[in-house]
Design brief:
The structure is a homotetramer of 345-residue chains. The first copy, chain A, has 345 residues and is α/β, with parallel strands linked by helices. In chain A, β10 and β11 form a beta hairpin. Helix content of chain A is 37%, strand content 16%. In chain A, α11 runs parallel beside α13. In chain A, the strands form two sheets. Chain A has a seven-stranded mixed sheet, sandwiched between helices. Chain A has a four-stranded antiparallel sheet with strand order 8-9-11-10. The first copy, chain A, is globular. Chain A is built from 13 helices and eleven strands. The first copy, chain A, folds into two domains: 233 residues, Type I PLP-dependent aspartate aminotransferase-like (Major domain) (Aspartate Aminotransferase, domain 2); 89 residues, Aspartate Aminotransferase, domain 1, CATH 3.90.1150.10. Chains in contact: A-B, A-C, A-D, B-C, B-D, C-D. The interface between A and B is large, with 55 and 55 residues.
Chain lengths: 345, 345, 345, 345
């Protein structure tokens, strides 16, 4: 590791690429293949997805999570419709208005304590269905694991998807950290997506050891009909597609996705365990996945970030966020804990 | 080279990654760096651009050429404005309407014989400046080298940029193959862009040996003011930015960009030389860069594509396009020429 | 008539409101009715449309022709699709890029001599159906009468609509001057729209004696499904809808639409007849409806516009356009002809 | 009044046109004038606005309130920016997502009890200025009188505009009922708009006796620079503009705007006074302008709407809204009050 590249707890996308994935990229660099996805690597990666999610799954690789989210939603909506999501959802808070720009739709954010929305809250937005003066709810977008590090139980997801489908709505899942959720729930990937009624999934790779690339996975083929045009017009069609495809192929081989996520989750759990006893520090969210949220006195933040980089999540309440990643080590955690003990003492 | 990965002449983006560039990617995979471009690799790559194009240049990395083009144009326009370009321009023909979708602007295509537009043709579109019933021309978008493998001479570009600026228009350059143009003109990169009045450049990497990534280069800082927001909202901000940045750093080190482009251009020149004498084959465009356009009888096309993949450019006139790339070899050319001789005999 | 309000030949929308229509507006100003179209006037005007075009017609009133055109097209398209039209089409030339802004679609303009496009020309744009790199043609938009004062014969329209439907395209008709076309063809309104395969019609009122308002008429109910939302989001839903509705009711009562258009067409025919013998003046288009296009020497234009306001259509070729309207009188024509004789002598 | 046109309390846009305004429309129907606003009526109406708001005011007539609001905001923003407004704002609740569609911007709604937002609430949305991951607040949009019938005091407005300008934001005012606010505050129109720092005003006419038409009024000329293009591309440029212009001329002559609004406000005040003593009825908002909000038991609503049409504002809390208009009479109020007494007894 070069100086200045010290592992911190800022984000799982501050990490680099898992060696197995990088190796796959290097291996794929042989001769010419047809551009834009009509190549054997893309075919083979697509096959992996179908093995996991079912034969009639449609998979499209794109560049990044924002691309996956906004194009998914575009595929499900017309501009006069609306998207219901948590106020803390990445699409609402962290994409600079990309969903509105790409789709023309209104977002209907729901205030939550823990990043998870409920059927009751969703229901409040359905009072004006059919009334042309109001943007018409069409999509519910969930995040799994949520931006607050919590995880929807399968029955929670299913309750929402059932309600959605009864009311003519689709459910999109922002799965930037879907692997962390599956590990947390001790399930496979299908059990918490397709099997509980999700219609379209943004399948995340970058936060789980990939260099670049996400996958849009449709569990309803009719919804995927126009997606190749949407992706191209959305500037998310990679010419040298093979280099995204082989990364996903590697991630889905020998459960690498699970091992990476397991490691990150374990490290978050370790961090939580170790800091629980530290005075002046309160864990503010259940640590379901690979994020630890903690309230600490403002004056202690700067001494900490000098040694380990991380973000303040909520300045007013002085809540910080610590993310672990596939390459976080026990030493990283124990070093950070030691510093926390010193500073907060 | 694996079977099925045979080098053909379909496109310079069917090639893989130059070994030096791949090596740089592998080297960059060390530890954590801040995501989204606030890292030393991005700083260093940006420095390279400034050395070439001038200190007051602003550089932004994006994922691909369509992204570079449409976001550049968005930075220069309001939705009620129009973009003048060649009918054959990538933005007009090959981006599935992305410019219209991202910017709301009308494209005003100009019919050309050789992919290059002229001041006289541009002038015909300026008859209604200030008239609110007509979309207002604001940007002229040129491609260099053009989609037809031709190259604007510096004085041709300058005539257009001077005319543009006199009329309150900006000039965008789609430089997907800017390196091939510089090699063709025996100049540096700055002499055919900034020095001849270009305002914003889509600097191409993928067609010249990069895995993924293009750069948007502003020569007018005021125009770059909002670009970081435009890039993020346009879903073109890479989280693990270092892996784009190091590729450009490698490409701009020791003139690798030039060597790659020189090789591709040389191979196209060789191909042209060899096929000129073949009967029933007519070269239809000057071979300025790395493309050879040829008219051949329709019945001969299929026997050729069985062995070397390439595209039919114009079915009605039976014109085919052969692209060379940084990894095309003399053997590739001579093998293809031998086949051509056999088939067209 | 107040001084300064002299009738000229600039445009049929420089005229005022037909007295019968104004009277209907005045009569409708009684008490309260529900806003936004849920009122008896709107019901009654809708009935008139159904009597003419068939019971299963869907009618929506909007504010103006641009609104009718762009929202019609929005109802038929997704953003990655394209609209084929004449280069001279109002949607292409005179709406400041509104179609691109509202729909995100690319317009594919066809160069014509007389404003009318043909199946052969349309066919040239269908070469890349299904190819995601190209905006996908979805709508053919015709204008009737055209912007050049010509009229599609029913069999011409039908040939286009048949070709369109065979290729999975819809046909929109910009009927800003549909009444003038029907009069010219000595048919009813249905025979040249629904009966020859048109899918959606922008039914013009303003150029035929109405104060404000156009109607979007769907002959395919499925296409109208979301239009009420599209209209509202497009800012084209009038709150005091009754005042648009009663104007259309009056226009469609006792064939007022026909009488107005007949008068305008007659006056154009008279003008053409009278000027044919004037030296240095060439009629450049068939006078099918209420427009006369003539080439006259540039130096004569200013003396003419001093007395009668009209527009130069093509400065390079010195072609002017003279429009007649429902209120043009024989005296207007003869006065203008006398002036023409004097000036061009 | 025809049967079925009984005056109710549903909305001030269920009313018709004030006789003086209708008379102006009839008077304007003389001969030809140049279309699209280059006519003496538009000039004269514009003059009236300048007399009221200052010589350097720029005025543009559009069709309706949604058009005025969304195009105003478009003139002030880029797509990556955001608009702060009350949750109950018309732009947020009642325009079917038109602001998002026209501008691409995110709306940042603020929950309020009375429709009025405060500097403290606005401040909470400014935490990420300059951070490209978040849509950048650019406009604060206020409504005056608010959708809840309340009115910002001049010092309240000024506090917001001062804060906005200090933070690089503009303030838009949705003045659909600006006349009612001025009457309520016993001021002129300028004192509660330009003089307290508003940048752009949607000046409402339709809810105060006009047939159709609103005015966009810029107090900062630089912001108006491109508005003529924005209006045209937004499908809000009326061809027979004179018929909008003369209505505003009439409305601004002899203080007709004030008399109409005064009457409506007086009737709301009368209604409030009369119903205060009725049991099982609670007034829920201050009656500052021409709206009365009241909580009444759900079972009483249907018997009331059978005789007088009005809307339920909040089903859960069983709150109804009664709007008065320029043509509401004392008899209307007393008749309704008598019914209320009977039903709620």
């Amino acid at each position: 590791m070069k100086p200045g590249n010290k592992r911190g707890f800022a984000s799982d996308n501050n990490a680099g690429v898992h060696p197995k994935i990088l190796e796959a990229v290097v291996q794929a660099n042989q001769g010419h293949v047809v551009a834009y996805g009509d190549d054997p690597h893309t075919e083979s990666a697509t096959r992996k997805f179908k093995e996991i999610f079912g034969e009639d799954t449609e998979v499209f690789f794109v560049y990044n999570g924002t691309g996956a989210n906004v194009l998914s939603i575009q595929a499900l909506t017309d501009s006069f419709q609306a998207v219901i999501c948590a106020e803390t959802a990445h699409i609402n808070e962290d994409e600079c208005g990309a969903p509105e720009k790409f789709t023309g739709c209104k977002l209907l954010p729901i205030s939550t304590g823990n990043g998870k929305i409920t059927v009751d809250q969703i229901g409040l937005h359905l009072h004006a269905l059919g009334n042309e003066h109001h943007a018409q709810p069409r999509v519910i977008s969930l995040t799994q694991a949520t931006e607050l590090g919590t995880v929807y139980r399968p029955q929670e997801t299913e309750e929402i998807t059932r309600f959605a489908h009864q009311n003519g709505l689709f459910v999109h899942l922002d799965g930037a950290r879907i692997a962390n959720a599956a590990v947390s729930l001790k399930t496979g990937l299908r059990e918490i997506t397709r099997d509980v009624g999700i219609d379209v999934l943004s399948f995340g790779g970058t936060k789980n050891g990939i260099m670049f690339g996400e996958a849009v996975v449709f569990f309803n083929r009719a919804l995927a009909r126009d997606f190749k045009f949407i992706r191209k017009q959305g500037a998310q069609l990679a010419s040298k597609m093979r280099f995204i495809a082989v990364q996903f192929e590697a991630l889905l081989t020998d459960d690498l996705w699970r091992r990476n996520a397991q490691l990150a989750n374990n490290m978050a759990a370790l961090l939580e365990r170790e800091v629980r006893s530290i005075p002046h520090l309160t864990i503010t969210q259940p640590v379901d996945a690979n994020a630890v949220f903690a309230a600490i006195p403002p004056r202690h933040i700067q001494p900490l970030t000098q040694e380990y980089f991380f973000y303040v999540w909520d300045e007013e309440q002085s809540i910080v966020r610590w993310m672990t990643s596939f390459d976080t080590t026990q030493e990283d955690i124990m070093g950070f804990v030691a510093l926390l003990r010193r500073v907060l003492a």
